[in-house]
Amino acid sequence: MSTCYPRPGSIKISEGETVTLLSNYSNAQRHTGVMGLFYLLVAEPSPKPNSILHSTDETGEIVILQNAIGALTAVFGIALLVGAAVIYQRRNQRDQEGYESILM
């Protein structure tokens, strides 16, 4: 049994249009089971995303922007570096407030 369906968003049915389902059977391939089971899924168009992290490509599918992920990763990395620098600074300051080191 084979299935055939278009990609989501590739077919648009306007109000008042008639949808016709056409089935072609060929005995060139051996078939078993039900030969005439069909279903049609219809959905309302989804609202356009208003997030800066989403965009639509030419097929209408929602894709997460790679640039946004890269920017978030960079911000996270910078935050880690700043946190490490603050911890290092505080440890050095605490060590210097106590005793003086003896150097010869």
TrEMBL record:
InterPro entries: Stress_up-reg_Nod19 (IPR011692). The chain crosses the membrane at residues 68-88. Keywords: Membrane, Transmembrane, Transmembrane helix. PANTHER family: STRESS UP-REGULATED NOD 19 PROTEIN. This is Putative ovule protein. It comes from Solanum chacoense (Chaco potato). The lineage of its organism: Eukaryota, Viridiplantae, Streptophyta, Embryophyta, Tracheophyta.
